[in-house]
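Practice problem: predict the structure.
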Amino acid sequence: MVPAFWCAAGCGGRGGTVSTTLTESLTGKQLATRIVKYSVRRVLFPLCVLAPFAWFFPKIAAFYAIVGAYDVTRNRNLDASVLRRYFIGNGFVTWLLSPFNALLDLLSLPHVNKGVYKLEDLPPSHQEEVRTLIQAAKDADLVRQLEAYIKDNQRSMVFFRWYGVNMDTVLDVPAFHQPWKHIETIGVSVFNKKVSTSKHFGYLRASLRVLYNLNDMKDDSAYIWVGDTTSYWRDNKLFIFDDTLLHESVNQTDQTRYCLFVDMIRPSPFPGVMRAVVAGVRLLTQSFKFVYYKNWKIIER
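Answer:
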């Protein structure tokens, strides 16, 4: 069970919504609420939960400290803010899962986790599926078809495939429902004008996140940030990365941003293990995508 005060900050590594137009001063009640949440996250939780746990279970605590240190130091541009977010912020669940993620890293060798990937870093069969999917998305003219469903939603998501299972959704794109060897999730994420996520971590490393921006952005204020890498959608439409790294997606433009949202099994000598993990995630989340993506408007039939 994830404590509620993490969910308020973007539980599940999916990121809370941040609007650049939110510049109003806080009311007394809002300020008090923020102070309480700050105190719980940064003071009470470490003192009342982490410290007693380390006292009563020192070996387990030491193990988690070591594995967590490995996990968090994969983030480039590591600083106190990243450490805080990881250990007592919205990365706490990622820390809890760090032993499992470290095992997935070992099972993926000799394919070393690069963090941020170029398409040519992937095996040929992975590359071919990415190219096939991108062409299918272009042929489907998704931006035009989705405009009517977006309206005033800050962030919207439509899924055509959800962790290995095809979805019956508002748009019919048969090419998305073909048998895929590596691709597990196919969706489109839509950011309205002046909408961004908070910085956040994903959960599991059984898959890689593949993003492809579907519409042409006019300036550099629409981008994705991962560690020491900032990729601008105007210049590079394709971005592939390990989403358990701290990341942030930003759209400060006056355009709506449409992005193909894909999870692909990471390269491994044991693809069956990776698929089993993905299937487990599907079973745990299929009935409550509205919680898993609680900061999004899920567009369904």
